[in-house]
Design a protein that fits this description.
The protein is α+β, with helices and mostly antiparallel strands. It has one helix and three strands, in the order E-E-E-H. The chain has a domain of 43 residues: Double Stranded RNA Binding Domain (2-Layer Sandwich). The protein has a three-stranded antiparallel beta sheet with strand order 1-2-3, with helices on one face.
Length: 65
């Protein structure tokens, strides 16, 4: 699976990465290589997370895109 990430220069040095298609999926590192390795791990954890329960006032729907 290929997922686009955005690599940013961190103000304090190093880098941080975000994944536009996975809201809240971020990581950081001292080098580009470390940051990319960290964001790969963050993506794996994000995708392996258990499904969240719907709040009492709502329900979960699955749509195909």
């Amino acid at each position: 699976m290929k997922i686009k990430v955005i690599l940013h220069d961190a103000e304090e040095g190093g880098y941080w990465a975000s994944v536009p298609s996975l809201p809240g999926c971020f990581s950081q590192g001292e080098t580009r290589e470390e940051t990319l390795a960290n964001i790969r791990e963050a993506i794996e954890c994000y995708l392996d997370a258990p499904d969240l329960e719907a709040p009492a006032t709502g329900h979960v729907e699955v749509v195909e895109v």
